[in-house]
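Suppose a colleague, Dr. K., hands you the sequence of a protein chain of 202 amino acids and asks what its three-dimensional shape might be. Before reaching for any lab equipment, you can write down a predicted structure in token form. Begin with the sequence itself:
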Amino acid sequence: MEKCAASEHRVRLIAAQESTALSKAAGAALIAGALTLMGSARGYAQSIEPRSYSNIPIGVSFLVAGYAYTNKGLSFDTSLPLTDPELRTSSAVLGYARSFEAWGQSAKFDVVVPYTWLAGSALYRGSTVERDVSGFGDPLFRVSVNLYGAPALTVPEFRSYRQDLIVGASLQVSVPAGQYDATRLVNIGTNRWFFKPEVGVS
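The predicted structure, expressed as tokens, is then:
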């Protein structure tokens, strides 16, 4: 009886450890995507996110929050004649993701909403311009669908899953809903849509 109880305890412990590791991995992938928006007045930087197409159980939700602080120079739209930026930003971000089944494979929907406080100065055609502004950045929405190697599994089924080759695709959309003032050069939002299709192998 003691051996049986000990064995059951080990099984539960392993399952709990797997669940914790899974949550950390999926959460880390979502945070990596969110961090591309943080610490910058522009939200369309290129990013390579770890575990973007890793398999996760269907019906699992993740809610993550993050914060970043930047100082000194930041990247701008190359069409803007701004030089020598000396800007400080504090950015908070909230992200949500939900896994689901799509054509027998695992898929994921996620949304990221940033809020940024920005202050500082830059040179505009030789003259110093200053900016002190706060507001929401452009939210990001993404649907990721695994095409091969990541079958849709429940949490109990996932415990016996071993990853091999995974092929997936995603579409990310940025909605121009963030803070934007057409009369100012530096804004938190971009006032433009962008669509980012992607195919990945893991």
